[in-house]
Amino acid sequence: MPEASELPRWYLRLGNLIAPRMSQMLPIPRGFALLHLRGRKSGKLRLRPVRAIRDGATLYVVALGGERTDWLRNARANPEIRVKVGTRTRPATVREMTDAEETARATEIYVSTVVTYDYQDYPMVHWDFPTRRKIIDAHRRWVEDGTMVAIDLNEGERGSA
Hints:
The chain is 38% helix and 28% strand. By secondary structure, the protein is α+β, with helices and mostly antiparallel strands. A hairpin with a 2-residue loop joins strand 4 and strand 5. Helix 3 (100-112) runs antiparallel to helix 5. The radius of gyration is 15 Å and the shape is globular.
């Protein structure tokens, strides 16, 4: 089965059309988030659901398509974003991780965390029956092939419910 980074661009775009609309109406499952970003060229609001593993006030997210991922390019151009986690939307800041210790810790947290929704998400990306081992192996490949960033939640600022 193909890796997420090997999936055809049209398949990823199709998912990006459907998933954000559903994510606006429903609570975001544990282990995921809905990013509200401004387009780097258009300035229009863009919504992207992502697998986001939380550690305190930081979310760790991998752009599965690596450097060619549109939401990552948008976040680099405009790092001040809004993030929906669960039912709450709050301001946040996207940043590159430069500290080797944080990167290693983030990788371990991201790879080893398996949430209920991973068992639904895995078959959509890999077209295979999910097991805990397969999900963890996929997470490791996503980190290796993709680009990981940190999203710091601005807890002191009030977000909308």
